[in-house]
Design a protein that fits this description.
2 domains, mainly alpha, 13 helices, MetI-like fold
Length: 310
């Protein structure tokens, strides 16, 4: 187990360098530049930034400067400073935005797990009954309705009509509810279907037949013997799903005016702020890799047949 973890951690820097290289090339080859925006900086400031950050140099030279400064973790280097907000470093901007996206992702994950696991377990316990059909039909609706439709609809009903919660902001528990529901509902739909499918597959296994032959109640059989193995598909799905949730949703952050990392990333991409784009992508990539490692470890813990050898 320890060797497996060490190997995966050693692969992390190599993968991040590859991601950074691809992102750097795509960002620099895209049309436009960091000073092509409606509200331009003074011409002298733009000229000094271009000279200081070596933006007029050949692409390979820019890449070498970028890679060297980031490998040194030099926060004061020009490649670590924002081109849209002079005087602010990339890590300062990410440090302000990323915690909000983490909070949004955490509560959205709680919503997704509560709704998804509950609906999936009920559907498995009441297979081919109206409970099963209702749960799976609701899951299909949850997958089909996009965030930009569900979010304004929740605001219209619970904020503007009923006045129960604020329509925007992220400054307290009441303001967390609607964004978390908007982001978590779609994932809960996938989790419910995976839970149902996993549990129904486990129910047909020999050890479950043995438990039924002993006269145990169906609920005891399911929760004590089948739930651990039935949740394996959900655990596999939670790796990329949790990464997507914790890094926030651009649409949800825009709808509810949450200044998270997703919104920051989009603004940086529109402004051609190469350094902020690179920083956000690296944070996304590192978080995804770590979450996948956690999922692999959980999978091995839940299923002893899995051996951490590769």
């Amino acid at each position: 187990m320890l060797n497996f973890i060490l190997r995966r951690l050693m692969q992390l820097p190599v993968a991040l360098v590859a991601v950074a290289t691809v992102t750097f090339l795509l960002a620099r080859l895209a049309p436009g530049g960091p000073f092509d925006r409606a509200r331009r900086l003074p011409q002298e400031v733009e000229r000094r930034l271009a000279q200081t950050c070596n933006l007029d140099a050949p692409l390979w030279e820019q890449y070498v400067d970028f890679l060297a400064s980031w490998l040194r973790l030099d926060g004061n280097a020009c490649t670590s400073m924002s081109l849209s907000y002079p005087g602010r470093s990339v890590w300062e901007i990410i440090a302000d935005a990323f915690p909000l996206s983490l909070q949004l992702g955490f509560w959205s994950l709680i919503v997704a797990l509560l709704l998804g696991l509950g609906a999936g377990i009920l559907a498995a316990l009441r297979q081919n009954t109206w409970v099963d059909h209702l749960a799976m039909s609701t899951a299909i609706v949850g997958v089909s309705v996009p965030n930009f439709v569900l979010g304004p609809l929740l605001i219209l009903v619970f904020s503007l009509s009923l006045g129960w919660v604020p329509p925007a902001r992220w400054d307290g528990p009441t303001s967390w509810l609607l964004p978390s529901l908007t982001l978590g509902v779609a994932y809960s739909a996938y989790i419910s279907r995976l839970t149902r499918a996993g549990l129904l597959e486990v129910v047909r296994q020999d050890f479950m037949r043995t438990a039924r032959a002993k006269g145990l109640p169906p609920r005891i059989i399911l929760f004590r013997h089948g739930l651990r193995a039935g949740l394996l598909p959900v655990i596999s799905y939670l790796g990329p799903a949790a990464s997507s949730l914790f890094t926030g949703s651009v649409v949800v952050e825009q709808i509810f005016s949450i200044p998270g990392l997703g919104r920051t990333f989009v603004d940086a991409a529109l402004n051609r702020d190469y350094n902020v784009v690179l920083g956000a992508v690296l944070v996304y990539a590192a978080f995804l890799m770590v979450m996948n490692l956690v999922v692999d470890l959980l999978y091995g813990w839940l299923d002893p047949r899995v051996r951490m050898e590769t």
